[in-house]
Each structure stands twice: as C-alpha cells, then as structure tokens.
Specification:
Mean pLDDT: 95
Helix content: under 10%
Number of strands: 10
CATH superfamily: Transthyretin/hydroxyisourate hydrolase domain
Radius of gyration: 13 Å
CATH class: Mainly Beta
Number of helices: 1
Low-confidence stretches: none
Order of helices and strands: EEEEEEHEEEE
Number of domains: 1
Length: 108
C-alpha cells in the first residue's frame, strides 16, 4: 500500500469524484507520483510504501472534472500541504469538493 492515500468526494452531488488527476509532490515541487481517481474517487496507488520524513503536497486538478459536467468552478486546482513526521504511519488525506468550496482533514 502507498504511504499516502487519498479520495475525493463531490459534496455538491453527494458522490465520489471520478477521473481527477492527483499529483504527490515533495515540498520543493518535485513529482513523487501521480494518478487519477477511480469510480470510487480513490487513487489506487499513489507513490511508494515509504516516504522520507518531510513536507509534501497533494495537487488535485479539479477544473477538468467540473468542466466535464459544464459546472463552473472557482478553484481549478486544490493543493494540500502536509508533513510526514512518522515513517511508520499511513497518511490518508481526503478532499471534499464543490464548485466554490473545498475541505480536507487527516483521515485514517
């Protein structure tokens, strides 16, 4: 299993957000891994089983997702910066989106 996992829920529709590009980057912007959400809004494999301790970023490219349904959005890209402080822990970083808002939290 990847050290970092994520999923996206479209709160405005009450369902997972499928086919959204997600990029895992280091704090300096180097790409570690990337993928697209599946029908359940999840990326099945996003990066290695272990990451070095430090600053990371998830970049969710949601503009294309909203454009596919003709929905205008205020946030074309959502970025979430976080810190990996324990190499033994799994980090789950979910995202809730709507065309004009987003929310996140540390999942389990």
């Amino acid at each position: 299993m990847s050290h970092i996992t994520t999923h996206i829920l479209d709160a405005s529709l009450g369902r997972p957000a499928a086919d959204v590009r997600v990029v895992l980057e280091t704090g300096t912007g180097e790409t570690v891994a990337e993928g697209r959400t599946n029908r359940d809004g999840r990326v099945g494999d996003l990066g290695p089983e272990r990451l070095e301790l430090g600053h990371y970023r998830l970049r969710f490219e949601v503009a294309e997702y909203f454009a596919a349904s003709g929905t205008p959005t205020f946030y074309p890209v959502v970025t979430i910066d976080f810190h990996v402080a324990d190499a033994e822990q799994h980090y789950h970083v979910p995202l809730l989106i709507s065309p004009f808002a987003y929310s996140t939290y540390r999942g389990s």
